[in-house]
Amino acid sequence: MKSKLFMAAVALALPVAARAGDTGPELAFRTGFSFPFGHFTGAPPGSSPVAVSDFFHGFVPLGVEAGFRFTPDVYAGLVFQYAIGLWNGCPSNMSCSGHDVGLGFDVRYHPLPGRQVDPWFGIGAGYEWISFAQSQPGFSSDTGLNGFELLHLDVGADLVASPNLRVGSFLEFKLGRYRNLDAASGGSSTSTGITNKTLHEFLTLGFRFSFLP
Questions:
Q1: What is the pLDDT of residues 142-186, one digit of tens each?
Q2: Of 83, 89, 109, 165, which shows the fewest CB atoms inside 10 Å?
């Protein structure tokens, strides 16, 4: 009888422990795979714009989130992401590399706080820097673009592994527009604002680990 009472007390205490960690600071790490869409810039009449996927068939993002759960169902914080570019069709006689860096903010709503599975919806914006380089003996070129991440929308669900640890997956859509271009090749360099601005997008499938100290 005592054993049954003890187990019942533990079962009742677990949801309370999970809810106790649902407010306060929150730190998370995320990764996954990002599919690029859209173009770096627009193009003058009679020419074709260069698609992001012409250079990269995907990115592997590594991100850190730091924010605060003001209530069990409302979170706001900053997110930093470094994404490794997976080059598309690098010539065999050249070395190619690239990356994408983003810094922004995110606001999330958790409609079912305190549950074992914690779904959420997020919205935010930020700024983005993308760069890529090609080199071979006697030649190198570096190109970088930067601009506003106009909007990102994400949806996910976290499994409450312990009162302080969540493990989950997410889907994120980003919409951005580059506004500046920097290029260097053969000892010369240029920096200019982009006249023919256009939109680009990233769709990310990923997973994350979050901690509520």
A1: 999 999 999 999 999 999 999 899 999 999 999 999 999 999 887
A2: 89
pLDDT single digits (tens) 49-81? 889 999 999 999 999 999 999 999 999 999 999
**Which residue, chain included where needed, has tokens 């006697």?**
138
Tokens, residue 163: 């009162």
Rounded-to-integer distance, Cα 165 and Cα 58, Å = 29
Question: CA-to-CA distance for 118 and 212, rounded, in angstroms?
Answer: 14
Helices (H), the chain: 2-20, 52-55
Q: DSSP label at 72?
A: T
The CATH number of 25-116+124-211 is 2.40.160
Cβ 200 vs Cβ 40: under 8 Å: yes
